[in-house]
Each structure stands twice: as structure tokens, then as C-alpha cells.
Amino acid sequence: MMRSLLALTLGLSTLSPAMAAPVKWDDNGHWYEFVATPVTWQEAFDAANAASYLGMQGYLATVTSAAENSFVSSSVAGGSLAWLGGSDSGAGINEWTWRNGPEAGQAFTYTNWNSIEPNNCCGGEDYVHTNWSGPGLWNDHGGPGNPGQANGYVIEYSMAPVPEPQTYALLLAGLGLVSLATRRRKS
Is this structure's pTM higher than 0.85? Predict the structure, then answer.
């Protein structure tokens, strides 16, 4: 009994610092979760995309403003090195895009690179992490130059975007046409 209680206590103590409960950022209504377990960018990418929270799909965080960067880097990651969802892998050097989430495939519209970054050092660095040499500062790392680079990572959770009213109008018009065509065929 004492042995299993000790194992349970040790198990819980090793789990608690690895993951913090997701927190909501009111500015965009998204939830964010820091996972402290050090993994490569690809492992973080796969784990984040397999995660869900309150019915929302997870993905590596896509940071699109200074306010979001401050929240993610400080409040969520607590200043720890953390992978984000951006990469220039497979693209031209320093052609950075978000690789998942609602911004998947989009070029960065906001960055917070450290003063000499991205520098594609040491044979190539293809992935973004935050809190490099200062709060919220980004660095390119991992990839062929540093394939074993392991950090924690930030998962972002959001609902699928709600279609705009024009989308509903087109959908209703299409359903009306299908209904009309079906009635004509029956006649």
C-alpha cells in the first residue's frame, strides 16, 4: 500500500510540471496550454495536432500579434523555451509560414525575432521557438542543423471559424435550387 502510494505521488509530481491547465485569452477566445516535456518540433507538432480541449482542435500556437506573443510567451509558457507552429522547412530560407491551425499556409504577418534571427545557423534551422535569450523573443532552431533540439511547446485550441453570413445565403440558395430541381423531376 505504501509503495503504491509513493509511486502514485511520484507519478503525479512528474506529471504536474509537464502540463499546465489550458488558459483562455479573452482577446481572441482561444485557449493555450504549455507542455514542458522537451520534444523536437515535429513531435510537438504531431502531439499538438492530436490534442483537443472542450471539443476544440489543438495545434501548435500561431502567434499573430504582439499582445498574443506576450500572453503566450510569458503567461502560458512562463518564459520557458517553447515551440510555436511556424517553419520555413521545404520553403525558401526565411520564407516563414504557419504550418497548422487557422493560419496554416499563411506567411507571418507578425514576428518578434531576436536581433540576429532568423539566421539559419549551423546547416539550417527550420522551426520557431519563443523565449530565446529574452521574454517573447523568437529564434529559428531545430531542423538539419540541430535535429535533436528539444523544447516544451504551446498548444492553441480554437473552434472552427464560423462561416460569414454570405456563406449561409449561398448555402440556402443552393438548397433551394436542389429542392426546385427535385420537384421538377418528380412532376
Answer: no
